[in-house]
## 1
Amino acid sequence: MRIEQFRYAADNLAYLVFSGTCAIAIDPGAADAMLAFARSQNLTITGVTNTHLHPDHTSGNARILEKTNADYLDCRNLADNEPIALENEVLTVITTPGHTHDDVCFFADDFLVTGDTLFNGTVGNCFSRDLDAFYHSLKKLMALPGPTRIFAGHDYVKESVEIAQAIDPDTPGVTQYLETYDPDRVTSCLADELRINPFLRFNDPAMIRRLEQRNFPCDTEMDRFKSLMQAF
Ligand SMILES: [Fe+2]
């Protein structure tokens, strides 16, 4: 399975995921660039879907659907572990409520499209107000293989790293993380996120010490996750 990233608006990121001659457009805000890429690679866009229904992610749906024979896959109707077939390969839906009630991620063998659930360096706002759900969603993603490449819905890398360093000036590996930042292909691997993303570090002894020093609730993993989300 392959993935091409398209930047649009200030910091939004859209994706074409493809196998053989078959492609799915995810959050296709860069519709014309995506259509041009598909043409140049002889790809047929067979599906249009979204990580969630915020308008900055759905703005290109109509244009792709108008210009192709693609089916629209409403993310609210996708089930956890549901396979989306692309020629001989499969993209797997992971339901990840938290940012909104209807967020999903899409997992292939070695990459994950995360929308506004998990960014490179931070996590999304919990607009659903359901931090328990958000925690369980992130735990599902954190259990995927460490080399999994993370392709998020926005490029917030620079500001996220600044926040990570403000929370923990000793964040391990953050300099190397920034050195690999490429605005033309924004990605990181899950193992890096587990190291530097403060909102995933709720079991890291250094982070637990920092929370304890500030008298935040930290008895359980969930307490620590909520402390991080509410404090920062
Ligand atoms: Fe969003």
## 2
Amino acid sequence: MSIFYDFHIHSCLSPCAEEEMTPFNLVNLAAIMGHVAIALTDHNSCQNCAAAMRAGEQAGITVIPGMELCTCEEVHVVCLFEELKAAEEFSSFVLSGIPPIKNRPEIFGTQLIMDHEDKILGSQDLLLTTASSISIDDVEKIIDGYGGVCYPAHIDRSSYSVISNLGMITKEMGFEIAEVSPTGDVDALKAKFPILESMKILTSSDAHRLDSMRPAELCLHTDNTIKSIINHLKNR
Ligand SMILES: [Zn+2]
Ligand SMILES: [Zn+2]
């Protein structure tokens, strides 16, 4: 079937996202917009994935537990997991390795942990937008070990992207997918970085607020289960 997707969405757990991005709100808006599957990808944490998945069950939309990891090179990498448990284990691992810098909500924004019905369960005290201890050279193998798939985020952007920060994307990094922003020029990127010709290109919203979520336009062709989608992305 056609899986209209958006695999890069932030909730109110990301300090830079609006508080209106509750798991309930973003999941239900994605469903109304016609998406079949979305992923919740907060910075360095999967702590709102359980709520989003439960909201997804109620809204009839597949929600993949995910994260936007910040590598030690400050490159953003989208990580998608087959199982919530593995996502949460990876989330704890990342949290144990980020700098012990406390969030200052008045400066960076709140980091709310919520349930599937907009109830606030707590907040994350450590600032989630710092660099983790994981290198771009190791991330693919690590995520594969957690049963997930990962790929560099918004490679066309001038900050926090593999190309902006490292100037290249290499075979050795192990990625088979790259994410290009909705405004990115895929042909120009391929001309400059021929490795992209052999990679799958995904485009997602990277929404941090409700009005930057995008209507369903792009789709994959596979079955509508997390397992099928992950297998499809891993070319299995
Ligand atoms: Zn990013
Ligand atoms: Zn993002």
